[in-house]
Specification:
Amino acid/polyamine transporter I, CAT_C, mainly alpha, transmembrane, amino acid transmembrane transporter activity, membrane, two-stranded antiparallel sheet, 18 helices
Length: about 575
């Protein structure tokens, strides 16, 4: 009997050890990508329809929503006319992140996946899956929230018709009809709008790109018109004092408006549908971001010049500013621009989600149905319908606006991981390292330095948030600089093919530090969400992902480059 029990315990221990060993070997495997001169335009694949202008409009469409008419004034109430500097600083920070994205988009120019793919290649499978889950929660809740806002704006425009003014019930478009103490909040217009956009996306990338290009062009024209008309009503005396509440509020404003630029990374997920991805993707990423910076700065200058910063409204500052100047027709145009902005932001968000699901479906981390592409439309219809259903359920039944404070975690996580990927992939292409450690490998040493930079960024953010003495923040910054110096001098780097991010590893390190610094500024519930979702993600991977992931990942996987004529 005792011998039987011992054998049973031994088998259980052996089984547990085998399961853990399998989990580790699966979680730590990375994807190896090589170039090929073949094309991937098969009958069941995505089709290359997007030119450089389409990609720029895709990035602008994702980044500029109704926020350009609201966030500018909201931040200006604290930063004053210095909000212009806030947008420039935030834009400069995003440009550094965009440089990292541009290098990797050029490095893997014909593969869908974005930050997920980069993490899979630079680090390992579990890291890539965690990045996907953090991004996807942001995308799902964000799409539902934007759909509700769009429904509200559309209802407002309908109310310009005298017969409908004041007669549209809440459950149609304005907010929602609440039941069970607010647990449910019914809104039928949001799912209808999502269904329309999902159908457009399922028709094909050409059709959806045409809609995005038209709506984005209309939005940009309206913003430019607003800037031009408003410039004639500017009183330069309103720009003085430029920073009425001090420089600190300008920097604080920069951390807030940083999220107004989020969206340029959507361009990286269109890799398999770009005509000349190696050339056009970096141009699309950086070009769209620069357009956004110019438009935001222009609106800030006009807004703070028209009305004293302390008299700006809270809900619709730009519309109220023009109404106060007797230009009510401009307010109507702003509402139309807001509808166009929200439409393109929602359209591109749904597009990106489906391409990420497509990437995981191909790799086996999600069911294979997500990997299927329509043979005629050349779109991942199953993935597209799935993300549309998720957004419709959330937007139609729940008041997802209350979850806005836990968003942006995925974007900051994705940006930080992409910056780290730029550094580590430069090592992987090197045949040798200048310095090797006796205790740990040079690669692990470098990863530890990157992690230290991130920790210092979080520490600096927490210290700033709780108002501790500035000397402690300086210590965190100094430690981060030392870790960056170790990355510079204890690693060997090679130049990548295609677009190259300048000053590696300094630029990626600055990105990581600032992104995690911003992460520390988020609501504490966002931190809890990050931890809980990470634990859930590991559980999903342990029970499904590790057993269904493509077994070829231990070998070299060849993804096809764009056709030769498209790359030149």
């Amino acid at each position: 009997m005792a011998s039987t029990m011992d054998d049973s315990r031994h088998k259980d221990a052996t089984s547990s050890s085998t399961c853990f060993s399998h989990f580790c070997s699966s979680a730590l495997r990375a994807k190896t990508l090589k170039s090929s001169s073949s094309t991937n335009n098969s009958s069941d694949g995505l089709i290359r329809r997007l030119g450089v202008f389409d990609l720029i409009l895709l990035g602008v469409g994702a980044s500029i929503g109704a926020g350009i008419f609201v966030v500018t004034g909201t931040v200006a109430r604290d930063a004053g006319p210095g909000v212009t500097i806030s947008f420039i600083l935030a834009g400069a920070s995003c440009v550094l992140n965009a440089l990292c994205y541009a290098e990797l988009a050029s490095r893997f120019p014909a593969v869908v996946g974005g930050a997920y793919l980069y993490a899979y290649t630079a680090f390992n499978e579990i890291t890539a899956f965690l990045v996907f889950m953090q991004l996807m929660l942001d995308y799902h809740i964000g799409a539902a929230s934007i759909a509700r806002s769009l429904a509200s704006y559309v209802a407002t425009i309908f109310e310009l018709i005298p017969a409908l003014k004041g007669n549209i019930p809440p459950w149609v478009g304005h907010g929602g009809q609440e039941f069970f103490g607010g647990t449910l909040s019914i809104n039928i217009l949001a799912p209808i709008l999502l269904a329309v956009l999902t159908v457009i996306l399922c028709l094909g990338v050409g059709e959806s790109s045409a809609v995005n290009s038209f709506m984005t062009a209309a939005k940009v024209v309206i913003v430019i018109f607003v800037i031009i008309v408003g410039s004639f009503k500017v009183d330069v005396d309103n720009w003085s004092p430029f920073a009425p509440n001090g420089v600190k509020h300008i920097f604080t404003g920069a951390t807030v408006v940083f999220f107004a630029y989020v969206g340029f990374d959507a361009v990286a997920n269109s890799a398999e549908e770009s005509k000349r991805p190696q050339r056009d993707l970096p141009i699309g990423i950086l070009g769209s971001l620069l357009v956004c910076v110019i438009l935001y700065v222009g609106v800030c200058l006009v807004l703070t010049g028209m009305v004293p910063y302390n008299l700006l409204g809270e809900d619709a500052p730009l519309s109220e500013a023009f109404t106060s100047k007797g230009l009510k027709y401009v307010s109507i145009l702003i509402s139309i621009g807001a509808v166009a902005g929200l439409t393109t932001t929602l359209l591109v968000g749904l597009y990106v989600q489906s391409r990420l699901y497509l990437g995981l479906g191909r790799d086996g981390l999600l069911p294979s149905i997500f990997a299927k592409v329509h043979p005629i439309r050349h779109t991942p219809i199953h993935s597209q319908i799935w993300v549309g259903i998720i957004a419709a359920v959330l937007g139609g039944l729940f008041n997802v606006h209350i979850l806005s404070h836990i968003l942006s975690v995925g974007s900051l996580t994705g940006y930080s991981v992409v910056a780290a990927c730029v550094v580590t992939l430069r090592w992987k292409n090197n045949t040798g390292n200048r310095v090797s450690s006796k205790c740990i490998s040079t690669w692990c040493e470098g990863v530890l330095c990157i992690f230290l930079v991130a920790c210092c960024g979080f520490a600096a953010g927490v210290l700033y948030r709780f108002g501790t003495h500035f000397i402690f923040m300086i210590v965190a910054v100094v430690i981060a600089i030392m870790a960056c110096a170790a990355l510079c001098f204890r690693q060997a780097y090679s130049d990548p093919p295609g677009f190259s991010c300048p000053w590696v590893p300094i630029v990626p390190s600055v990105c990581i530090f600032f992104n995690i610094y911003l992460f520390a500024q988020l609501h504490y519930e966002a931190w809890i969400r990050f931890i809980i979702l990470s634990i859930v993600s590991v559980g999903i991977y342990a029970f499904y992902g590790q057993y269904h992931a493509n077994p070829r990942l231990d070998e070299t996987i060849i993804y096809h480059m764009a056709p030769e004529e498209d790359r030149h």
